[in-house]
Amino acid sequence: MQKLGLEIVRVAKKEKMQKLEDEMKDAIDANKEGAIFICPYCQYESKKNPKGSAKVFKNEFFKCFSCGKWRRI
Fold first, then answer.
1. What is the chain's mean pLDDT, rounded?
2. pTM, full prediction
3. Measured between alpha carbons, how far is residue 35 from residues 4, 7, 11, 22, 52 in Å?
4. Number of domains within the chain
5. Which residue, 1, 11, 22, 25, has fewest beta-carbon neighbours within 10 Å?
6. Distance CA 45, CA 6 (A)
């Protein structure tokens, strides 16, 4: 089994965190309780509700009512 160097792991972790931050940009911007926005995972937007399908709940969690994902902001 080959072991990875510590520097490679740090770079990979930094890149992954940057990618997650880019995907969650809208959720981070709409972090007030009750805010509605477009889900960063499914990108669902209905004709009746053009704001989006994800809603922010207390304790900085959001739920998408389209794909059913719960995520912490």
1. 78
2. 0.54
3. 42, 39, 34, 19, 10
4. 1
5. 1
6. 42
